[in-house]
User: Which sequence fits this backbone?
């Protein structure tokens, strides 16, 4: 499989789309736009994984693709939107590093990923190597997003996007046995973390953010915290 | 497979399954007292099972049911089960004072058992993917326990823990995938590509570039969980803000399990090292952790944060020792055991002192020897042990490590010695402040809600401390021959 063959080119295109959407995540200024971009990345990831499943003849990957499509393209974005609406989280992103500077650092990270992966993997096939380089770029961009955002919700999206890179890497390796389990387990990690955090945090600290909510919360909190 | 007799299969499986089942049961028990007692019973059963593992044959050989037992994980398992048991006793004595709601109490005990089970699974797993899942589970259980107090500080600590360890664990997964990619062409059947025994067989043929790449990700990823330097900053917060028993198991078990995962990866990658040998990377990270922690120790005011930084220092030392390899790996094993024993002993004593004084600031804990002689002197002894003074085992391992460094890499002896000296001085200073310093102006004795009754409380908090110190003393003075043989085997696997 090499350059010019359909399965190779489409795999590249789809993985490239996931990477491009990572850059878009860094570029967006509004929380709602960030969530939409994340949903689009989930959809692109599902397509990329499904294509790999077809190209490698590995039906297990279809399951991973299905999980990615339902959870990351639909359910998680919906849940995040509901959180933003319900709790009136700050609607605009507050980057610690400017958007332009962030993008430049992002380009540098992609270059780093290519420089690290390509010389190290001369033994592996061309598709696997380049797939790994792109997956590592998505991982690094997700980390960058987590570092340069101050709000909890943006950090969570960064972590989820980083995890997209992991699924992409796992799907690119031909015949990886635990691929379904690993990717779903990673998904569960982030999901449970998110749910736990928001459940605890919003209940505990909302009273101090908005006085009108204080009365409603006080009775419940007093009961919950003092045995 | 057919060579495995039933107990060989059943015992490790039971050891892993029991805490998970127990955790599910504890989640349903509303009475805090009953849950605390059942927690002790479960931990005791786990400890007896772990002792039973000693009778099993341990080989490099086949893995059954994705689990395997060898000289590297057996001592850590025994240690884990022991610290689990003593911490469960200590927890029963102090959980009444944590002020948990019934729901938080149930979550606390369930998470404690799930954490123990995940820790045992992470140590026993033969498949690196399974090991990853287990460490992820352990992360969850501890995040939950750290957040239980729901104060803003506790929430921030839990959030930091979740985000940093999320990144770390994601990097470790990436490393695991790359490792599988390196092994797949040689492993034949895909299912075995992540099995440790298989990796040890095919590691020599695998591509060194891929192996080195995998090791870098695994080291940084699991190193995050072990508290090694670039991503260590979750550790002091998590130690300071969670319930008191958690600090003991965090330092005693989680850091060891994470470092054990790094050691497994190192054993594979060292078969065919590329340009960057894995040992050198570990030594660099270990030394950086040691030096940063040695400097940071001087600026701490909070006692639990102080000892969390001391954990970073000691894990750094162990990583350095394993990186140096050869006889130094024996020092690393001994250091892991000694550190876990003494550090959890310190957290027991500190927990008791915090309950009595109502604050965990170093300044508020002053003069313990005068006000509570038994507790005060025990804590002073434990702190001297952690500072690396003879006759405890940390002195023996640090001495062996120093001697190896001077003999093999003399130019590293200077930074190593400097770090050790600074950290030891800072610890002795804290010991003087806590043990011998002036008591705070107004010592208010708090009435603490108690589950077991005040006399039993004091006993359940102090007996584990004394037991740990005694074991550390034994390890330092006279290492029994079978244990020494086991540790030497472990050092051979890791080093």
Assistant:
């Amino acid at each position: 499989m090499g350059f010019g063959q359909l399965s190779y080119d489409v795999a590249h295109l789809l993985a490239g789309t996931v990477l491009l959407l990572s850059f878009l995540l860094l570029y967006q200024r509004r929380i709602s736009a960030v969530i939409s971009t994340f949903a689009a990345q989930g959809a692109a990831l599902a397509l990329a994984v499904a294509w790999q499943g077809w190209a490698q003849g590995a039906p297990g990957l279809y399951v991973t693709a299905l999980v990615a499509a339902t959870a990351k393209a639909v359910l998680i974005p919906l849940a995040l939107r509901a959180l933003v609406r319900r709790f009136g989280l700050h609607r605009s992103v507050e980057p610690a590093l400017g958007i332009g500077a962030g993008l430049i650092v992002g380009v540098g990270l992609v270059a780093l990923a290519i420089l690290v992966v390509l010389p190290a993997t001369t033994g592996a096939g061309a598709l696997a190597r380049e797939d790994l380089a792109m997956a590592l770029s998505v991982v690094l961009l997700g980390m960058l997003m987590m570092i340069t955002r101050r709000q909890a919700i943006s950090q969570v999206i960064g972590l989820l996007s980083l995890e997209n890179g992991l699924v992409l890497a796992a799907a690119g390796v031909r015949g990886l046995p635990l691929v379904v389990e690993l990717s779903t387990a990673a998904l569960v990690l982030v999901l449970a973390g998110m749910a736990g955090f928001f459940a605890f945090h919003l209940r505990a600290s909302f009273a101090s953010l908005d006085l009108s909510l204080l009365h409603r919360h006080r009775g419940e909190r007093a009961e919950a915290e003092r045995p | 497979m057919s060579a495995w007799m039933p107990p060989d299969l059943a015992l490790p499986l039971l050891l892993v399954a029991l805490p998970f089942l127990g955790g599910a049961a504890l989640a349903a028990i509303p009475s805090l007292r009953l849950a605390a007692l059942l927690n002790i019973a479960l931990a005791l059963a786990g400890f007896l099972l772990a002792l039973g593992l000693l009778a099993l044959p341990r080989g490099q050989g086949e893995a059954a049911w994705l689990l395997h037992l060898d000289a590297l994980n057996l001592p850590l398992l025994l240690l884990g089960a022991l610290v689990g048991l003593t911490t469960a006793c200590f927890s029963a004595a102090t959980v009444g004072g944590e002020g948990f709601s019934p729901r938080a109490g149930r979550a606390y005990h369930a998470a404690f058992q799930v954490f123990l089970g995940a820790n045992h699974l992470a140590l026993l797993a033969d498949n690196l993917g399974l090991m990853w899942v287990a460490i992820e589970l352990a992360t969850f259980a501890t995040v939950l326990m750290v957040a239980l107090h729901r104060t803003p500080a506790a929430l921030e600590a839990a959030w930091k823990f979740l985000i940093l360890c999320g990144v770390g664990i994601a990097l470790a997964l990436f490393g695991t995938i790359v490792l599988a990619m390196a092994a797949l062409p040689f492993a034949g059947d895909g299912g075995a590509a992540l099995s440790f025994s298989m990796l040890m067989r095919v590691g020599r043929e695998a591509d060194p570039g891929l192996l080195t790449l995998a090791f870098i990700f695994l080291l940084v990823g699991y190193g995050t969980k072990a508290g090694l330097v670039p991503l260590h900053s979750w550790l002091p917060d998590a130690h300071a803000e969670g319930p008191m028993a958690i600090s003991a198991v965090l330092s005693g078990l989680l850091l060891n399990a994470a470092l054990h995962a790094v050691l497994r990866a190192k054993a594979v990658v060292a078969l065919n090292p590329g340009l960057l040998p894995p040992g050198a990377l570990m030594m660099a990270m270990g030394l950086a952790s040691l030096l940063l922690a040695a400097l940071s120790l001087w600026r701490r005011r909070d006692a639990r944060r102080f000892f969390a930084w001391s954990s970073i220092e000691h894990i750094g030392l162990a990583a350095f020792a394993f990186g140096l390899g050869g006889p130094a790996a024996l020092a690393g094993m001994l250091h892991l055991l000694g550190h876990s024993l003494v550090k959890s002993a310190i957290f027991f004593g500190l927990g008791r002192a915090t309950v009595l004084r109502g604050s965990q600031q170093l300044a508020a804990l002053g003069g313990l020897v005068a006000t509570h002689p038994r507790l005060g002197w025990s804590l002073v002894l434990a702190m001297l042990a952690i500072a690396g003074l003879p006759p405890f085992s940390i002195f023996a391992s640090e001495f062996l490590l120093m001697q190896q460094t001077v003999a093999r890499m003399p130019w590293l002896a200077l930074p190593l010695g400097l770090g050790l000296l600074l950290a030891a001085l800072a610890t002795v200073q804290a010991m003087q402040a806590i043990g011998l310093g002036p008591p705070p102006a107004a010592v208010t004795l708090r009435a603490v809600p108690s589950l077991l009754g005040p006399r039993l409380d004091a006993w359940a908090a102090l007996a584990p401390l004394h037991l740990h110190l005694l074991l550390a003393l034994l390890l330092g003075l006279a290492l029994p021959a079978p244990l020494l043989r086991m540790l030497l085997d472990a050092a051979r696997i890791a080093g």
